[in-house]
Recover the amino acids of this structure.
């Protein structure tokens, strides 16, 4: 496994590999790796010859400086996991390397995608996400980039950016990885107690109810019943629950057969903000 820290070294190393005609996949991460991230590496290995994993806690996508400060950075364990997963290249830049002092201001028109749900709750978050992903795409020049479905809105935003910027990269969406009881794996789960982890299973139960009854009940009724499931657990504060059209993420009042929908859910448990979603129809 090749480990690089500078843009110049990364570009030079990948140029030699690219000249041999090998297909390159990028898996962007902020570290604190778990089975969800490793599943992205495995999926990338199925569709490309070379897998590049970036580890970079991107400051421009954090609204709360305390959240940035608290973000876990177990770098030695991350590298151990990536070696075991047979990752080819790890890119670990510093903030100064990614954001030099002469950095131009970044803004991209994301339409309504950064004004609803996560965009509304975390103003500027998706500008920061697109800024760093655009940088990574231009550095790595991947043929394909792998992202987890758990961050569904983020994927829609990145796909929108790829379209606007006309970038020659395929976005590959990988299924959310869950534990045996259904909890979506997340770096934030480590901040929950055992009791909190049990409570968090209610997110999966609520989303599953929506998925199983999507053809039988209206979105309004589904939301009401799912909120009832969430409230039964106690000490779960729902930030938002919505049934949306997949591409636009606009909330819907009726389900039209043949269209694709997604249920989005964000809730707080023990002071930890958990996000989850479930694709409802294709």
């Amino acid at each position: 496994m090749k480990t690089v820290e500078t843009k110049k070294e990364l570009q030079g190393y990948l140029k030699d590999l690219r000249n041999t005609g090998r297909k390159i996949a990028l898996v962007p991460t902020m570290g604190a790796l778990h089975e969800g991230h490793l599943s992205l590496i495995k999926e990338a290995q199925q569709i490309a010859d070379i897998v590049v994993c970036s580890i970079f806690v991107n400051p421009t996508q954090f609204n709360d400086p305390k959240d940035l400060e608290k973000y876990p950075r177990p770098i030695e364990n991350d590298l151990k996991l990536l070696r075991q997963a047979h990752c080819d290249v790890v890119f670990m830049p510093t903030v100064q390397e990614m954001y030099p002092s002469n950095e131009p201001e970044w803004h991209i028109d994301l339409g309504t995608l950064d004004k609803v749900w996560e965009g509304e709750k975390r103003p500027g978050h998706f500008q920061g996400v697109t800024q760093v992903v655009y940088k990574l795409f231009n550095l790595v020049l991947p043929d394909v980039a792998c992202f987890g479905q758990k961050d569904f809105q983020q994927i829609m935003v990145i796909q929108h950016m790829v379209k606007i910027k006309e970038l020659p990269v395929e976005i590959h969406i990988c299924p959310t990885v869950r534990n045996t009881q259904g909890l979506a794996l997340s770096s934030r789960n480590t901040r929950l107690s055992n009791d909190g982890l049990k409570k968090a299973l209610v997110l999966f139960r609520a989303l599953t109810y929506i998925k199983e009854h999507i053809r039988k009940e209206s979105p309004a009724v589904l939301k009401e019943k799912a909120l009832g499931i969430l409230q039964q657990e106690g000490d779960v504060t729902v930030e938002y629950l919505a049934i949306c059209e997949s591409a636009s993420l606009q909330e819907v009042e009726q389900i039209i057969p043949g269209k694709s929908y997604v249920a989005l859910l964000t809730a707080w448990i023990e002071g930890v903000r958990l996000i989850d979603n479930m694709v409802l129809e294709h």
